[in-house]
Write a sequence for this structure.
């Protein structure tokens, strides 16, 4: 593992609890420390605030404007944190909706210090009158960074196509679980009773849990699975109503975190994420679960492969129903796919690998910055 010599700062809109372990693990390889600047989410987002033990947390005062695709954020206290912490490398969320971001980049660049953008990618601007303008704006935005970190090869390709140098793009697959230290969860090659399907995540409209409930209801009654929904959020009441109406075999368990999730992962037969997101996928795979995931922002592509699961078009009920039928028709194949999930998390995509990529990116820009001290 590379040791990071630079004093590292990370600029985050919020610090969700699922990121705490990662930031603490990254701080453990930062010889001169790591500080995270983050504020509070809106109450309706239902994001549990994380706590840090090795890394340092400096609280921001978040000002939220508008909603949805028009959302904007300004973080008060940014310059105070920068002056206090004096980061030598800064990692920021590469999101143009964060209005304070240019100020942070200027502060670093005025001192000859590098900034790394951390983002999903740069999707094509599409067609139409303003497509060229949007593409040009995206290019200018990403060019302010000395390097980019993205979750997937899809994101890396998008940044490359937007004109960013490929050698400055680092792929750190999204992970919340470490390398497994125990053997894969044993499961028989036949369902003892009905199979158990599991969803874990915040209950929001974009997660499309309604689609999952409808898909289960569309199966033949003799093949009805148990459906476990673990999570909380603004869509919970409407989802419970829908389940009572069309699929009473759905059970809602509320929000569970950390060790509380383990019994659900161990007892499930198949993990399903029918909408956007994807953090829980890697965690489910560490318990040897095969996966059905909707194609969303590209982060699922490196995790879910033909050998361990299925990717389906987002919002497509027919595709989800047909995939469920295929998956549940052969429990022995499901076990084999679960074993491949376990291998992927053990060898390729885990928290340790994510830390390693971040450390490499920081080392790269810091080394180059030190090679040109006259620029400071």
């Amino acid at each position: 593992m590379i040791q990071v010599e630079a004093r590292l700062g990370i600029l985050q809109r919020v610090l969700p609890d699922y990121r705490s372990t990662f930031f603490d693990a990254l701080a453990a390889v930062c010889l001169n420390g790591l500080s995270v600047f983050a504020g509070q989410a809106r109450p309706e987002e239902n994001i549990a605030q994380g706590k840090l033990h090795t890394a340092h947390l400096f609280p921001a005062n978040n000002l939220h404007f508008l909603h949805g695709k028009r959302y904007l954020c300004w973080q008060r206290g940014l310059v105070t944190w920068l002056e206090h912490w004096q980061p030598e490398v800064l990692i920021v969320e590469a999101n143009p909706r964060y209005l304070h971001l240019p100020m942070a980049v200027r502060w670093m660049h005025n001192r000859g210090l590098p900034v790394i953008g951390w983002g999903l990618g740069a999707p094509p601007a599409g067609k139409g009158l303003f497509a060229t303008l949007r593409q040009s704006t995206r290019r200018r935005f990403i060019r302010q960074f000395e390097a980019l970190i993205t979750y997937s090869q899809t994101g890396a390709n998008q940044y490359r196509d937007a004109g960013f140098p490929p050698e400055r793009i680092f792929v750190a697959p999204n992970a919340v679980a470490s390398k497994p230290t125990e053997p894969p969860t044993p499961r028989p090659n036949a369902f003892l009773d009905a199979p158990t399907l599991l969803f874990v995540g915040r209950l929001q409209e974009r997660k499309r849990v309604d689609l999952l409930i409808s898909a289960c209801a569309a199966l033949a009654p003799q093949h009805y699975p148990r459906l476990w929904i673990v999570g909380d959020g603004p869509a919970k009441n409407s989802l419970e109503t829908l389940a009572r109406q069309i699929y009473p075999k759905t059970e809602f368990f509320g929000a569970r975190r950390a060790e509380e999730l383990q019994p659900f992962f161990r007892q499930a037969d198949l993990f399903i994420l029918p909408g956007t997101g994807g953090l829980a996928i890697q965690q489910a795979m560490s318990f040897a679960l095969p996966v059905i995931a909707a194609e969303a922002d590209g982060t699922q592509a490196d995790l879910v492969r033909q050998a361990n699961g299925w990717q389906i078009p987002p919002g497509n009920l027919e595709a989800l129903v047909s995939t469920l039928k295929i998956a549940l028709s052969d429990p022995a194949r499901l076990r084999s796919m679960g074993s491949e999930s376990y291998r992927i998390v053990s060898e390729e995509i885990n928290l340790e690998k994510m830390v390693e990529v971040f450390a490499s990116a920081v080392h790269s820009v810091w080394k180059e910055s030190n090679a040109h001290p006259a620029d400071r």
Notes: The radius of gyration is 22 Å. The mean pLDDT is 93. The CA atoms of residues 194 and 308 lie 21 Å apart. The longest strand covers residues 8-14.
